[in-house]
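hey
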């Protein structure tokens, strides 16, 4: 859709020219390149990749600017989860939703099996906190950063869980949404700011 629209726009500009639309067309071209990169690097959205974290946080920024803080909080929390999943897979060589027992460090193994193994299938699925505990035990900087930020992350998790888009009915305020965004952005080392152009 974006590619087709951009082609029509460029055809129009070649024919008629428009000093206001030309910068807009160039910006749309950069957007298309960004979207193409996400599709390429995720294997058409079939595998995890840090580009998805950037996309989630850029979308969260736009939702905050629109005053849609519940939507933003859901995206921010998902960015944090996704970061943990990517880090876990890089270190463990498997996904955190199906963890072989022998991958878990011995100091955590019994507790993780007791808490997170499905009683019937035996499949071990690690939630957010356990994922980062694993990473800390493996000496990863992300695990250490998680522990350093645990109180802020728990507050963020509480705000998100109370939201209408999760388990509650309380809206996330802008006063809560902005600090959540800043905390997670620092945590995942988000730097790729990207905005979509507006029609002139």
């Amino acid at each position: 859709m974006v590619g087709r629209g951009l082609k029509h726009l460029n055809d129009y500009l070649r024919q008629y020219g428009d000093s206001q639309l030309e910068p807009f067309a160039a910006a749309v071209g950069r957007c298309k390149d960004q979207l193409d990169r996400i599709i390429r690097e995720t294997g058409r959205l079939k595998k995890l990749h840090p580009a998805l974290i950037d996309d989630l946080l850029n979308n969260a920024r736009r939702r905050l600017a629109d005053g849609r803080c519940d939507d933003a909080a859901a995206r921010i929390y998902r960015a944090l989860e996704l970061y943990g999943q990517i880090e876990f897979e890089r270190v463990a060589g498997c996904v955190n939703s199906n963890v072989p027992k022998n991958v878990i460090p011995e100091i955590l193994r019994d507790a993780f099996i007791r808490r997170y193994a499905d009683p019937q299938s035996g499949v071990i699925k690690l939630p957010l906190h356990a994922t980062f505990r694993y990473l800390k035990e493996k000496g990863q900087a992300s695990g250490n950063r998680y522990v350093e930020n645990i109180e802020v992350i728990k507050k963020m998790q509480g705000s998100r869980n109370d939201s209408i888009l999760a388990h509650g009915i309380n809206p996330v305020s802008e006063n809560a949404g902005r600090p959540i965004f800043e905390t997670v952005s620092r945590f995942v080392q988000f730097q790729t700011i990207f905005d979509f152009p507006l029609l002139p």
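The CA atoms of residues 67 and 131 lie 31 Å apart. The mean pLDDT is 90.
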